[in-house]
């Protein structure tokens, strides 16, 4: 009887950990997608200084978030997003709208892929 209780406790811990991971990834991806949209909007309004500041602060907060997500996710996914975000302030400072918007779209795709890779779909489990 004791083994069944331990097995149930371990199962509950695993379910809670997975639920927390899914919640964290979903929350992070939606926050950064919204911030990327704001950077894109600022660039289209030609507010390059604000776009540069926002993208720099977004990069700093992403580095903190990336440390947390590295515990749960593939490091390659996180590293690609970090690399993409690191060039955004440079593009904003150089007033390069096309390169910045292309990079933003690439990061959004990577964030979506990150989010979908962690959801409990059958193809992710198998």
Structure summarized in a few sentences:
The protein is 87% helix and 0% strand. The protein is mostly helical and 126 residues long. The chain is elongated, with a radius of gyration of 18 Å.
What does this protein look like?
The chain is mainly alpha-helical. It is 87% helix and 0% strand. α2 (48-69) runs antiparallel to α3. The longest helix has 43 residues, at 2-44. It is elongated, with a radius of gyration of 18 Å. The model has no long low-confidence stretch (mean pLDDT 87).
SSE blueprint and pairings:
Blueprint: H1 2-44, H2 48-69, H3 75-86, H4 88-93, H5 97-118, H6 122-125
Percentage of residues in DSSP E strands: under 5%
* Low-confidence spans: none
Q: Main β-sheet: number of strands, strand sense, barrel status?
A: none
Percent of residues in helices comes to over 70%
Rounded to the nearest angstrom, the radius of gyration is: 18 Å
Write a concise keyword list for the protein shown above.
6 helices
